[in-house]
Each structure stands twice: as C-alpha cells, then as structure tokens.
Amino acid sequence: MNALHNLDLFAQATLSIVFEAIPFLLLGSIASGLVEAYVPRDKVERFLPKGRLTATLFGLALGAATPCCECGVVFLARRLLGKGVPAGAALAFMLAAPVVNPVSVLATLVAFQGNPAMAIWRCLLVSAAALAVGYWAGGRPAGSLVLPLAGREPACGCGHDHGPGHGRQHAPATAPGSPFGSLADALPVSALRPGRRGQAASAMHHAMADFLDMAMVLVIGSMAAAAFKAFVPAPVVMAMENDLALAIPGMMALAVALSLCSQADAFVAASFSTFPQAAKLAFLALGPMLDLKLLLMWRQVFTPRLVRVLVFAPAAVVFAGCVILGVIQGGAS
Amino acid sequence: MSPATFRALAARLDGAAMLALAGFLGWLVLFGDYWMYLNPRFKPVTLAAAAVLAVLGGYAALRPVSRPRLGRGLCYLALAAMIAAVQGGVQAVSRQVDSDPFFVEPTLPAPERSPAPAGRMQAGGREYIPINAGELFDVAAKGTAEAFARPYVMRGFVHRSPELDARGQFVLYRLAVWCCFADGTAVGFKVQAPAGAPLPADKAWLAAYGRLAALPEDQRREYVLPGMAFSSVAPGAVLAAEHLEPLTLVPEDAYMFEWRQAEPYAY
Q1: What distance in Å separates the CA atoms of residue A211 and residue B94, rounded to the nearest whole number?
Q2: pLDDT digit string (tens) for B37-50?
Q3: Exposure letters B122-135 (e unless 16+ CB within 10 A, then b)
Q4: Minimal Cα–Cα distance from B111 to chain A, Å?
Q5: With contact defined as beta carbons under 8 Å apart, do B94 and A4 qualify?
Q6: Do B75 and A16 touch (CB under 8 A)?
Q7: Could you tell me the residue range of the domain that residue A142 belongs to?
Q8: Would you call B66 and A212 a contact, using CB atoms and an 8 Å cutoff?
Q9: A22·B232 Cβ contact <8 A
Q10: A64-84 pLDDT per residue, tens
Q11: How many beta-carbon pairs below 8 A join chains A and B?
C-alpha cells in the first residue's frame, strides 16, 4: 500500500466517523437543549430516586431503554447533572446507554452469529463498570464532578460563551463560576416564567452551543482514530493473538484507539476470529465506555478527578472480568 | 476590512460552517457517493441530520451563539481539506502508483449499483444461488450438510499469494460495511479454481460459481489479507469453483452493506 493510499484511508475513515456521528451528536445536543429549556429542576429533584444505589440503578435502567451513541450522551449527562439528576444516575446512564440497549445487543448477536454469550457478557461487564462509577459518583455533589464554566465568561450565565446578540434574550448572569451556570439551574423555571418563544430560543441556543463544543472534539478524535487505522500495520495488531496476557490489554488499547461506534464494533471484534474470546470481549466492553474522542469530550466537561475515574474504573472492571473469563475458558477463541 | 467587521464575520463562521456541512451532507445523500462513507441504509438519518443542521446553522449565522475560536476554525479547514481530498480523487493519483480495490474514485453522477438478480443465476446450464462473501461465510460457519450440497455464486476481488497458488486457490473478498467505512472489514472466501483453468489475475473482479467443500484439517488456518486493517477469511471451507466469470466492476459493489440469513440473499 503506498503512502497516498494511507492518506486516502485516513481522510475517508475520518469523514466516515464524523458523518456517522453527526446525527447522534445533533440528537444529543437537541435533547440537551430541550432538557435545559423545558425540564424544571425542582420536578427532577422531586421525582427521581435519591438513594445512592437506587439512583445508580435508575440510571442503568434508563440507559437500557435509550438506544443512543456514546458521542451524543456526554453533554446530555452534563445537562442532567445540572438539572439535579443524581450524579450516580447520570453517570451510570452515560456509560451504559451506548451498550445496554436493544439495538447494540441485537448488533452483537448478529455479529456473533446468534451466539448470545458475547452479548450477555458485554452487557454484564458494562453494567458492572457503570454501577461502580455511578455508585462512586453518587456520594458526591454534582458540582464537584463538572468543570466550572467561569473561565469562559458566560454572557448570560447559561453556561455558554454566547457571543454577540445573546444578551438581548436572557436575563443577566446569576451564578458566575458555578459548574453549570444556567439561569434555569439557579432559579426554578416557575420563577422565570419565560414565554414560549423565549424557551424555544433558549433550547436552540443551548443545543447549538453544545453541538459546537463537541463537534470540534469529535473531529479531532475521529482523526486520531482514523490515523491509527491508516498508519498502524495489521501485523502489529495480529501479533497479540496467541497470548492471553497480551491479547486482553492489547484489544483494550485497540478499542480506545479505534473509537468505533458501539453498534458497529461487534463486527470488527468478530473479525478477530483467532483471538481469545476474552480479548474480543475486552474490545467490545471497553470501547463504548472509553475511547479517544470520549476522553477529549470528558476533558471539556468533567473535573480531572472524574475523568481519571472514568478512565480507570471501566478499564479495571473490564480487565478483571476478561482475565477471569479467559482463565476459565483456557484462552478459547 | 475594519476589525469590527472582521469580528462580526468571524462570529458567523460557525453558522456558515454548519450550513456548508449541511449542504454537503444533503448533496452526498441525494447525488453523491454516499456509500463511500456510510452504509446507504443510514441515508434517511443523514438527510434528517442535514436538515436540522441547516436550520441550526442558519440560525447561528444570523444570531451567533459563540465567539469564534481558532481551534474550531482549524477543524473546519481540516474537514474541508479531507472532503476535497476524497471527493477530488486522491485515489486517481494513488492508483497510478499501485491499485487498492477498496479505494474507488468518486464519480459524478454516482454509479448505479448492479441490479440484484431476480432469482437464481445460470452458468453452464446449471442454477446457482447468488450470495455475498459475508453470507457465504455464515453459511459455511454453520456447516450444515444441506448448505454444503447447494450451488452458490459469489462476487469479489481476487487475492493471490504463492501459498494459495500452490494449491490452485485464491481468495475472493469484499469490504463489509455495517455502519461506516471506518469499521469496514474485508470478508473473503477461499476459492478452488476449476481443474485445468488458469488462476485469475490478482485484484481482478469476478464471479465464482461452485459448491462449498470442507477444507482438510491441515489447511484450516487463519488467513490474513495483507494490507487490510481487518479481515476475515472463512477458515474451514472453500468454494470449489465450477466456473469463473470476469465482471465489470461497479465501484459501489466493492462494498457489502447487507447480510441475509436465507434466500434471496443480498449478493
């Protein structure tokens, strides 16, 4: 393959990841904008479970019922946190939703020719990691998990750098330096009584600001993933196949580097037919919870401490689970 | 241009970029080579996203939501450069150095796919079941005697190697694209050339008509297609060809977007 082919591959793969993710990113940002404009914080606080474990389980159940892509769910989680959703529920939802949903389960079943073992193990490992992170976060105030937006000098206190013209549509900032910064977060919606047009405009503004924030990260993450595919020779990957101790961390690293969609990665995993099943599971379980573009997105949104937990907790759960499975199976592929 | 005018224009860059991206996505779905990037089953999703993006972009162009940022501007430039590279046909240049079947040049208008065969296909007075490499891979993996007794015809690119040549075999493969090009996996099947027939040229596009045969134990090894980031070649079976037919390649046919479990297969 000549260098120009690598360039073709890089450009085509980058664009395909970006084009694939844009609808989900839009969906996530619109959902985020709607939550911001229409969901009153006081109602959320009243109706959601408050116990640490029950809230985390609620987030997991919500994820199971919500087929969505990992790209769109990050800032939705941020917005839910801002609206008073318990941290355990929001983070469990964020980690579980891309995998523990009917669409991803079906894709995994199809990729592995109807054998349910891989889909079941994948859901179990992802749920375990989501529960662990959710339970850890459940004991902390949401404000300690999300980056403050003070550095961005919000013009209206809604958490975004809105630029010219925006000041006409919002009341003055209410909570400079607060992690969420939203006027609606600071006051109950009933106190504001915005008109319908004002609410719609607010939803649109927040949706666009979220989209623009994450689109840049998506492009950079997609370029990194495509570069790995284009420039790392296949024999380097295949060299790991015969050694379980190498194959599991190697496939975990590959999942992070490739940043594949959670509904398509099962087909790539299935193509590693000679790799131990535990290594394929490591690839499938970790990829939707931790990859390059997610890492970049988290750094925009969450505190460094939470980012470290989001990196290490799922990786540890997946590694431990897959090593145990690999030892039990004797490295079977 | 005064600094104030520059700032006002720059503030509208995000909206303009969203509008441009919406326009490109819409064009790609309706007139362009969408299949080069994504499985065509996602066309309605992309079109809907383009429409939403156009609305948001129009709004952002009129009422900027964010101050311009250099990083975002560079990302827009990078995206535009990659679109120009792929749509402008870097492939046409690279093909002059050597050819890689999966890097097909974009064309205007986008090529028509070959129509799916209405029923079974005929060759040498016999009937064959049209099937694609991915579907045949599944059929062989299930390994039922009934499936092995049936005649099949599949299309793909030829891959040859000295090891395969020595056994009179080659691999016939295509790129399976479930979601997008980035998750594409080359799926292939070993083909035993008809007795006495010359082996086809490497990278030729052809149809092979034949029946499945189980490979002997000593030949059941993983075969990796060189140059492919990910590939799967059926390890336990070979298509014993009775007839080979060179075909004219319609670029989109180089990719497989659908896998069915029973007749009529996607071919």
Answers
A1: 35
A2: 999 988 999 999 99
A3: ebeeeebbbbbbbb
A4: 18
A5: yes
A6: no
A7: 2-329
A8: yes
A9: no
A10: 887 677 777 887 888 888 888
A11: 178
